């Protein structure tokens, strides 16, 4: 994860220093957004105007720490799990040549996420608002644990669907409207 954070901040830092920014991350992206926000605050003393996290428990939550490690499943069991959560076109998962190319990468990405650990913050390191989204039918995530990262407003929004709820066009519209509204409000605070 540190390598990912270093690459993201290395590329984006010049832009992030110039104007207000927000972070959005879903699943693996939620952990990446959190880790980037943490590094930006600790190293550069800058933070987003809002952070939007989706489809993931806080990295230090007991629910997440105790979750099964799916990256360690056999390839067949891993495929069964991938099919069950949706989000990947079935024709890709049924194509042996595609699987040969992408299965190792998918498992490696999941391994990074499942093994990413950090301690619960002693006190919030952010002051910006944090909003957590999740699908009502996804496996339960400890969204409330994300509150520990901010002294700012904290909101949880549950939308219809499972882990890839955000692929639904109605949910996409809800997300974009919500994020746009909150960023416009944040922008006014900076004018």
Automatic annotation (TrEMBL):
Pfam families: Thioesterase (PF00975). One of its GO terms (molecular function) is fatty acyl-[ACP] hydrolase activity. GO terms for biological process: lipid biosynthetic process; monocarboxylic acid metabolic process. Residues 1-179 form the Thioesterase domain. Its EC number is 3.1.2.14. Belongs to the thioesterase family. This is oleoyl-[acyl-carrier-protein] hydrolase. It comes from Channa striata.
């Amino acid at each position: 994860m540190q390598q990912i954070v270093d690459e993201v901040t290395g590329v984006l830092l010049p832009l992030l220093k110039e104007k207000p920014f927000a972070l959005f991350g879903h699943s693996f992206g939620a952990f990446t957004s959190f880790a980037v926000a943490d590094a930006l605050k600790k190293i550069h003393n800058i933070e987003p105007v809002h952070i939007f996290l989706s489809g993931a428990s806080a990295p230090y939550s007991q629910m997440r720490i105790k979750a099964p490690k799916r990256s360690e499943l056999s390839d067949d069991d891993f495929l069964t799990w991938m099919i069950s959560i949706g989000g990947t076109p079935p024709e890709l998962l049924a194509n042996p040549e595609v699987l040969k190319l992408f299965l190792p990468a998918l498992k490696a990405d999941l391994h990074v996420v499942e093994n990413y650990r950090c301690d619960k913050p002693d006190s919030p390191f952010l002051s910006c608002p944090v909003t957590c989204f999740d699908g009502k039918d996804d496996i339960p995530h400890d969204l409330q644990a994300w509150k520990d990262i901010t002294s700012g407003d904290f909101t949880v929004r549950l939308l219809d669907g499972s882990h890839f709820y955000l692929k639904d066009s109605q949910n996409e519209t809800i997300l974009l409207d919500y994020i746009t509204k909150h960023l416009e409000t944040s922008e006014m605070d900076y004018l």
